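Field: sequence (string)
Field: structure_tokens (string)

Example rows 1 and 2, in order.
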Amino acid sequence: MARKRVGVLISGSGSNLQALIDAASDPAYPAEIALVVSNKADAFGLQRAAKAGIATQVFDHKAYPDRESFDAAMDAALRAAGCEIVCLAGFMRILSRGFVEGWAGRMLNIHPSLLPSFKGLHPQRQALEAGVKVAGCTVHLVTPDLDDGPILEQATVPVLDSDDEAALSARILEQEHRIYPKGLALLAGGAVRIEGRRALTG
């Protein structure tokens, strides 16, 4: 089976991008990273992509008059590269409804909470402030509503009495690196079907 071509959107260090690159280095993995796009020219993830021989493009969101024109430029680049799936990996821009709908069922995100709890910014801090005993991360399909799409994978970590935001975030990140490649493999391998709000992978 031909491997699915994937575009990854980043804004920063790209540690989840690296996890996807590492997974895709196995010829048996059902996806290959075809393009990495960043809205920041100094994002370290661009260096990770270049080291792996992956094409990169930078689109400075400040250079566009509105969200729609910025998204249209990224969309054109992804489609020109033959991308069939888009993965968000620390991409710190809200995407327009048109962009999201154009990739419906083919765009993934990784979020550092057990969705639907603690959506939005600083979910690890939200978890600590709520006093939960278990936190974690979620791989989900992207919909126009923030952090709200069908869930493909989740992983849990205990919240320790000694945790602060940085410590909890670091342990969650380890699990992000483990489950994001699994979620992409499910989608790229055609193992996902949607029933209502549920992503069934069995």
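Row 2 begins here:
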Amino acid sequence: MARFQGLFGIILILAIAFICSNNKKRINYRLVFSGILLQIVIAVLVLKVPVVTNFFKWVGRQIGHIEEFAKDGAAFVWGGVFVQSNSGASVTYRSPQTFIFAFSVTATIILVCALVAIFYHFGIMQRIVAVIAKAMNFIMRVSGAEALSNVASAFVGQVEAQVMIRPYLKGMTMSELLASMSGSLACIAGGILIVYVNFGAKAEYLLTASLMAAPAALVISKIVWPETEESETMGTVKLEVKTPYRNVIDAISHGASDGFKIAMNVIAMLIGFIALISLVNFLLGKLGILFHLDTKLSLDWIFSKLFYPIAWAMGVPTADVNNVAALLGQKITINEFVAFSNLTAKDPVTNQLVMHMSEKATMIASFAICGFANFSSVGMQIGGIGEIAPERRGDLARLGMRALLCGTLASYLSATIAGILMG
């Protein structure tokens, strides 16, 4: 029975999307069911077929190599810095079993952004995205623009994915625009995914979650805002492969520069948000003492109560529901960095995970928080896409909160399906 607990989650998630729909009579149920079926196929292939599972584990190991390559570059800059190893001894930054977030993560993001820029310059990234988008277009019968945008979101950042469909943004329907925004919020960029792997999350879970998020976002968004207009790109998938760089050196330079900006933004967000969380928790604790509450009041305690029903419905074992519910709350109201940081945090003395959870709960949590769907990302989307297509800024603002809902529910849907398959 525990295996099928997640069926309640699927029903609940689809019901929430249906209730929020602006035109229930125009929902394309063929698209909805084909999208869910595509999610199931992806999950079965990655989680249950040994050949595919081993491939994704191999990809995860290669991601580990990327971290080492990045560390080689960072060691030239930070080589004289001594840090504390897991054993407690003082060693150089380049030594094995050392990890300093500001140094290691910054280096990894810069390297990945440089690699993506190289792939983009030679047209490799665009062609991979186009092939997968054509398959999704054929299976789900979505328009070319929204298929391209959603698939691209599984590889590049939430604004960069929209750059790939720049020529179509002006003429996209409201339904297409919501689908595109939802996909960017539900998926995770490659450079950020590697950050979570550095935290200690399993690469195969994150890769699967990001791939499943593309059809999931289309399913949810097409329930919330069904297509009622004529799309300019229905049945076609055309992607411009022209490189914005003069040569490969220019691509590396721009990629590294963009990576540094992203890394600094990540560090700034973490410092700001975690510091504010400490402040809020301090004030909540004082409030709890003032009112003589039996429990220690904190944001995690509040989130664990608010998100308890959805966490249970997604199939999380009862013993782990409070922890997963707290992570869901942290992800949507603060950001996914804080959620993943808490999911993978280890005790400095014992080197054991602080948040002790079953493998199933850890997997469901990893899927559910693997995405950009949070309040600050909505602002980034409106601002970033608004710069690309200024004439759509009003529509973007109108759709912002709906996109947040769709991106969140899409991640939950992927997590629930994965949980059912794991048993």
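free_text_note (row 2): The mean pLDDT is 83.
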